[in-house]
Amino acid sequence: MERGHSMEFVGNYNDVEISVTAWKDNKTVIMASTFAGEKPLGKVMRYDKKIKNRVEITWPHIIEEYNKHMGGVDLLDSIIARHKILMRSKKWYMRIFFHLLDLVIVNAWLLHKRVETDKKSENKKYLMNLQEFKSEVASCLCKMGYKQNAKRGRPSNISIEQMFQTKRCKRDCPIRSM
């Protein structure tokens, strides 16, 4: 393919059209999307090494949309790369799981930052950095199902007597003696 040439293949999965577009720039770029496709074609200026000048080539709509909105994806990738979960595994699905966990946590942290900075209050002490946010999420997940109102100290005499009664009942059970 010469530079600027593109091809599109459209498939349908669960009544959702998926467009896969291949575009030749310096190298072939392949993108899949349910949002945009090849049409309408646009024009873009690129530098050509052979003639050492800028030339105008066509590019698909999906590439234009990606370049317009790629800042958020690159930001997310850079944050994940800096604060990655450092658990190694030879299983490919565990690596995907840890990456998705990183993705979810960073997205939640970005939402937390947006909500806390949008608040009009002067009390900005709730704005956490990513490490604090991750440790808070981890501690909340560890406490899931844990009773907060468990009694501390020695048990009372009544509860000890009830414990002995249940033990006697289990010991004297006729089914066990058979």
Automatic annotation (TrEMBL):
<dbReference type="InterPro" id="IPR029526">
    <property type="entry name" value="PGBD"/>
</dbReference>
<dbReference type="Pfam" id="PF13843">
    <property type="entry name" value="DDE_Tnp_1_7"/>
</dbReference>
<keyword id="KW-0472">Membrane</keyword>
<feature type="domain" description="PiggyBac transposable element-derived protein">
    <location>
        <begin position="8"/>
        <end position="109"/>
    </location>
</feature>
<protein>
    <submittedName>
        <fullName>Chimeric ERCC6-PGBD3 protein</fullName>
    </submittedName>
</protein>
<feature type="transmembrane region" description="Helical">
    <location>
        <begin position="92"/>
        <end position="111"/>
    </location>
</feature>
<keyword id="KW-0812">Transmembrane</keyword>
<keyword id="KW-1133">Transmembrane helix</keyword>
